[in-house]
Write a structure and sequence with these properties.
Elements: E1 5-9, H1 13-24, E2 28-32, H2 36-55, H3 61-69, E3 71-74, E4 85-88, H4 94-107, E5 113-116, H5 123-127, E6 136-141, E7 150-155, H6 161-173, E8 177-182, H7 189-205, H8 211-222, H9 228-235, H10 237-251, H11 260-267
Parallel strand pairs: 1-2, 1-4, 2-3, 4-5, 5-6, 7-8
Antiparallel strand pairs: 6-7
Helix pairs in contact: 1-2, 7-9, 7-10
The chain binds nicotinamide-adenine-dinucleotide (NAD).
Nicotinamide-adenine-dinucleotide binds next to helix 1 and helix 4.
Length: 283
């Protein structure tokens, strides 16, 4: 299948980033959210991100203008009927996603691909909600979408080879580097990354070193572009904790036990950059 039109559910951080990548690649995007204000905020973010790319000389001003015109916004799910693929990128809540996926299946063409950008929910379990799970797949983008090249393509138990090929081709068209992985908690990147962040919290809690020293250690000694604690602030401490709790439950292995300091900070509402305070303080 040649994918020309991409439906995106959710105009938040990931949804608008995916819409931007689609539009810059010359494809049409239909971005759906529950409110006009969420859609406007999403388009505004895309505009700002495109402006930054132009200012850095990474994109032509005329290309940026044309890209913006390729993103159509609506609160009407019925508009997804013309999409070749729909990528769901709404809030990480299993019931919300299950309800929406059934709604999408009812409006899209029978040959359209249905994908989810979930970071932690089982692709096989979500697919089981659809009457045809062979066309359902995980397409996990990374934040910020316009800058990070990876897309994890996650194969659920029932996903067909044709669906995998269609999504792999789309990822390449979006100028991304896809890897195809099996459904498993956290897939590949979060499975490795989030336990490392958790370990950094244990090291901090035990007083082995300060936050600055831990982050400097991993930047300068392990060649990471950002330290694990600064990265936790960027991702959101609540997101890190939620992912660890999924690992602890689904693997049943105590090695995934969340550090009590991480849990305590989430309880206090110190979630990182988005609340102005996490491990570090942001103005
Ligand atoms: P977000 O909170 O920024 O955006 C979610 C959007 O979904 C909001 O605009 C909200 O209005 C919309 N929404 C909620 N219910 C809806 C519905 N019923 N119909 C249409 N729209 C609805 O969240 P996000 O960070 O963009 O995350 C979206 C998904 O991407 C989640 O599954 C998350 O796990 C995943 N993800 C997030 C990141 C990240 O770093 N933020 C990275 C990879 C994957």
């Amino acid at each position: 299948m040649t994918i020309k039109t991409v439906g995106i559910l959710g105009a938040g951080t990931m949804g608008n980033g995916i819409a931007q990548a689609v539009a810059v690649a010359g494809l049409d995007a239909i971005m759906v959210d529950i409110s006009e204000s969420a859609l406007q905020a999403g388009v505004c973010s895309v505009g700002e991100s495109l402006d930054k790319l132009v200012a850095k000389g990474k994109l032509d001003a005329s290309e940026a203008r044309v890209a913006l015109t390729r993103i159509r916004t609506t609160t009407d799910y019925g508009s997804l009927a013309s999409a070749d693929i729909v990528i769901e990128a709404v809030t990480e809540n299993v019931d919300t996603k299950l309800g929406l996926l059934r709604k999408i299946e009812a409006v899209v063409r029978t040959d359209a691909v249905i994908a989810t950008n979930t970071s932690s929910i089982s692709i096989t379990a979500l697919g089981a909600a659809l009457s045809d799970a062979t066309r359902f797949i995980g397409m996990h983008f990374f934040n910020p979408v316009p800058l990070l090249p990876l897309v994890e393509i996650i194969r659920g138990l029932q996903t067909s080879e044709e669906t995998i090929e269609n999504v792999r081709e789309l990822a390449i068209k979006l100028n991304k580097s896809p890897i195809v992985v099996k459904n498993s908690p956290g897939f590949v990147v979060n499975r490795i990354l989030v336990p490392m962040i958790n370990e950094a919290f244990f090291v901090l809690a035990e007083g082995v070193a300060s936050a600055e020293e831990i982050d400097a250690g991993m930047r300068l000694g392990a060649n990471h572009p950002i330290g694990p604690l600064a990265l936790a602030d960027l991702i959101g401490l609540d997101v890190c904790l939620a992912v660890l709790d999924v690992f602890a439950r689904d693997f049943g292995d105590p090695k995934y036990r969340a550090c009590p300091l991480l849990r305590e900070m989430v309880s206090a509402g110190n979630l990182g950059r988005k609340t102005g305070k996490g491990i570090y303080t942001y103005s």
